Amino acid sequence: MKKRVVIGLSGGVDSSVAACLLREQGYDVTGLFMRNWHDTTGLLQSDCHWEDDLMFAEMVAKKAGIPFHMVDLSEAYKKRVVDYMFSEYGKGRTPNPDILCNREIKFDSFAVEAKKLGADFIATGHYCRKDDISTESGIIHRLLSGKDKNKDQSYFLCQISQEQLAETLFPLGGHTKEEVRTLAAGLRLPTASRKDSQGICFIGKVHLPVFLQQKLKSSTGPVIEIDKNSVFPSWPSGLPDETVTDDELIRMSSPHQPGNLSGTIIGNHHGAHFFTIGQRKGINIGGHREPLFVIGTDTDNNILYVGEGQSHPGLYRKGLFVRAGEIHWIRSDLAMNNGGIRDCMVRIRYRQPLQPARLFMRKEGMYVIFDRLQRSITPGQFAAWYDGDEVTGSGVIDQ
């Protein structure tokens, strides 16, 4: 008997080709479209709305000859993704809605709905791979980066669990984006030339300050420029060894304190919680040879700290910290104990090249110290650690 796969059809080319590949592989495929958002506040009107996505998803299902269904998950999405976003931005942190959407919706709420349709597996159009290894304790599922290194989306799945991986298929993991476009054209899919979606997962491309103003109020505050010649901590390149002290780990992973440095008020902003570390757009203050970048925010006192130029030392740090309760292991068999040290590769944002780092596990959490200084380490974002092509774990950057 054929295994039934319910695939999330989004109306884009990736999920369209993934559905067709699954059919060719002999699965009993059903398409399921998720509507996750209703409010259009802050949306850029030039973008397609959900009705367009639904129309394309239906056309793809008809072309592929598979059953099609729609489900409204907007209540769960608002509660588990959007409300969390508002809360994090209000604290001066920058969440990653795509990772949250995968953890909370695609591989949770969506999977529940898929099982109601008799799914043995769910499938997505992510560019990543999965394989299984046998151990004495049973089968272990591994999340691997995709063949297309420029499109690899394993980072977005860094919060997935073993249970979720066991029931998921990634048909595009062994393909490049160019190959997928070619396959779509050959299959004459209506999405073959459709542009990839941009912006917040299932909401679309937004003007973020307007979107956030639904819950976060504007409030005028000073913009303080920190001189690049101010005294910032200096760290040598290379990884610290096992003799490093906890005090040194704390210092290496702590964010800069620009409020303790000499600075000059150069203008005003409309809310420090609307900005994120490393941001360039939206500062709107001229008179500088190089662009200004955000190097710090103080949401308690509504102060925005900026520095001139992308080489400003305030943009760079040696390490980061993940609290114990925010550490997630995809491979629980590889979880580190207190006092453990491990070398790995780490990514702190999508498409960032993997960076050599050393993990130091302590009772309070994990210190991630990099071989080289890293630009724009941002609280609220996710750090994902890799062993070769495999994502073994991740965590929310605390500071």
Structure description:
The protein is α/β, with parallel strands linked by helices. The chain folds into 2 domains: 4-211, 3-Layer(aba) Sandwich (Rossmann fold); 218-396, Beta Barrel (Elongation Factor Tu (Ef-tu), domain 3), CATH 2.40.30. Helices cover 23% and strands 29% of the residues. It is built from 8 helices and 18 strands. It has helices spanning 13-24, 50-64, 74-90, 97-116, 162-166, 177-186, 208-212, 246-253, and strands spanning 4-8, 28-35, 68-72, 121-123, 128-135, 138-145, 168-169, 221-226, 263-269, 292-298, 303-308, 316-323, 327-329, 341-347, 355-362, 365-375, 382-387, 390-396. Strands 5, 6, 12, 13, 14, 15, 16, 17 and 18 form a 9-stranded antiparallel sheet that branches. Strands 3-2-1-4-7 form a 5-stranded parallel sheet, with helices on both faces. A 4-stranded mixed sheet has the order 9-8-11-10, with no helix packed on it. Helix 1 (13-24) runs parallel beside helix 2 and helix 3 (74-90) packs antiparallel against helix 4. The longest helix is centred in the first third of the chain and has 20 residues, at 97-116. The termini are far apart.
